[in-house]
Design goal:
There is one protein chain. The protein is mainly α. Helices cover 68% and strands 0% of the residues. It has six helices and no strands. The chain has helices spanning 6-47, 52-62, 65-84, 89-108, 116-138, 175-181. Helix 1 packs antiparallel against helix 3, helix 1 runs antiparallel to helix 5 (116-138) and helix 3 (65-84) packs antiparallel against helix 4. The longest helix has 42 residues, at 6-47. The model has no long low-confidence stretch (mean pLDDT 79).
Amino acid sequence: MERRNPRIAHALFWDVLALLGLSCYEFAIRLDDIAGEIKMVSHLIADGRLTWTAFLTTYMWDLNSFPAAGYMLLCILLALWVMISRRTRRACAFMIAPAAALTALGFSMHTSIFGETVKTIKMLPVVVLLALCVAHVALRPRRKPQPEGEPRRRLWPEPPAEELPQPDQPVRHRRSDRHRAA
């Protein structure tokens, strides 16, 4: 399962590069939104209308920026993992579960201001990553047909054949054999 299809590995690289760029951009935007929301909440806390515990337990998760920033951070981590890995079939087998989880999580999140179209465009690299990983694991590389005249390649060398004495050669015994016979 260690073999690697160069076409799929190349497509994985470019897809992950797009995912990394898009996720970093979206994460930076979400961090800017979070900074504004924390500034607003700090004014509400200073006025006494809200407490930090109430904000951290309930209101923070109602805002779209916090879960979206966490999701984008997970996408960045997945993209970095794929970039660092060798993109073999075994590595893709391990990447299927996180990619499927991020795909399901991304489609279950609340939509942004721009709606479903932008959400679908943002999710496209994750979906393509999942599809490429599944294809890489499912498709086996073609084996080259072996010519009829060539012997099969073995994993270990053949043991040497014992040399039998020729009829015209004298039989040589070991010293230990001569002493036993006498």
